Amino acid sequence: MNIKNVYILEDRAILYINGDDAVSFLQNLISNDINKVSETYSCFASLLSPQGKFLYEFIIVKHKSGYLIDCEKSQADELYKQLSVYKLRSKVEILNLSNEFVVAAFSYEKFLAFSEAQDVPGFTLKFREDPIILDPRNKKLGARLIINLEKLYLSLKKLELHDADINEYYSLSHKLGIVPKNLNQLQNKAFGIECNYDELNGIDFKKGCYVGQENTARIKLKNKLTKRLLPINIIDGKLHEGEGIFNKENEIGKVLINNEYPFALIKFLDKNFDENAEFKTKEASIKIKKPEWIGK
Q1: 172: number of Cβ within 10 Å
Q2: What is d(CA 190, CA 260) in angstroms, rounded to the nearest whole number?
Q3: 124 contacts 144 by C-beta, under 8 angstroms
């Protein structure tokens, strides 16, 4: 990622949650600990189904009296509805600010150039009152600025950043093994922990109960994690959502995201999963490699 480049993430949306019960409301829902979030630290988290399956993921940033929720735009409306369902009598306000705020990403090196920056995923500083966050999932993804759309281009000029092709950012994310888009294709098809949220700093196993916590904890504590969401590199051919992936006649996974930046749920402990092998689907030859940040 070039230190002078900035990527306007038009596929991101911003929700805002505030009110007297905002902390307890979020704490009872999300996979991470909201008490970690402060003016200088933001977190990555997910909202799971009661069975622990993936529904939504987002970055949570402290802002004024509440919290900004940085999520994929294709998920924003449904996430808003889901949060509203859980609201009940809680004293919280949920706003969709996607028409007012925008997210822009730039390099890790540029972030470290700020005098107050710390080399810690999730570390948050302010630039003219707007939060800049070192990506809490993986610092190689760089930093993200959440800012009012009207202020965006003046701030980018002051930061000496130049608009670049967003596909460069998507490609980096895919190469790192972090899903950049099309998250709706994962819903209810994988457990949150199978989406590598433990390694991406998205699960706190020490916090209290939250939606989907029971199965998430059971898989972790009983060492039953046998599948992981991994990036697909296409050698040739075409992928189809939901189709099997084979090493000869042995199925080792399924395609979940098939277009642009594909991912599959892989039996990564299976004896037939070899990172050096060339795998087959119905119409494609592919490679699958476990990212280096995933433990053995």
Answers
A1: 18
A2: 20
A3: no
Beta bridge partners of 45: 58
**163: its two tokens:** 């608009």
Exposure string of 138-168, with b = 16+ CB inside 10 Å and e = fewer, is bbbbbbbbbbeeeebeebbeebebeebebee
Surface-to-core class of residue 23, CB atoms within 10 Å of its CB (0-12 exposed, 13-18 middle, 19+ buried): middle
Q: Can you read off the two tokens belonging to residue 65? A: 């009296």
The whole-angstrom separation of Cα 293 and Cα 59 is 19
Report which of 174, 175, 161, 41 is spatially closest to residue 107, judged by C-alpha positions: 161
> If you search the block for the tokens 């799971």, which residue do you land on?
48
* Structural domains for the chain: 5-176 (3.30.1360.120), 183-288 (2.40.30.160)
Residue type, 214: E
| Per-residue pLDDT tens listing for the chain (296 residues) | 899 999 999 999 999 999 999 999 999 999 999 999 999 999 999 999 999 999 999 999 999 999 999 999 999 999 999 999 999 889 999 999 999 999 999 999 999 999 999 999 999 999 989 999 999 999 999 999 999 999 999 999 999 999 999 999 999 999 999 999 999 999 999 999 999 999 999 999 999 999 999 999 999 999 999 999 999 999 999 999 999 999 999 999 999 999 899 999 999 999 999 999 999 999 999 999 999 999 75
Q: Measured between alpha carbons, how far apart are the two ends of the chain, in Å?
A: 28
Q: How big is the CA angle at 188 (ends 186 and 191), to the nearest 5 degrees?
A: 85
- What are the Cα distances from residue 170, in Å, to 84, 176, 182? 30, 10, 11
What is residue 87's three-state secondary structure?
Answer: helix
| Residue listed under structure tokens 């189809």 | 240
DSSP assignment letter at 278:
P
pTM above 0.85, yes or no: yes
Phi then psi dihedrals of residue 205, to 5 deg: -85, 0
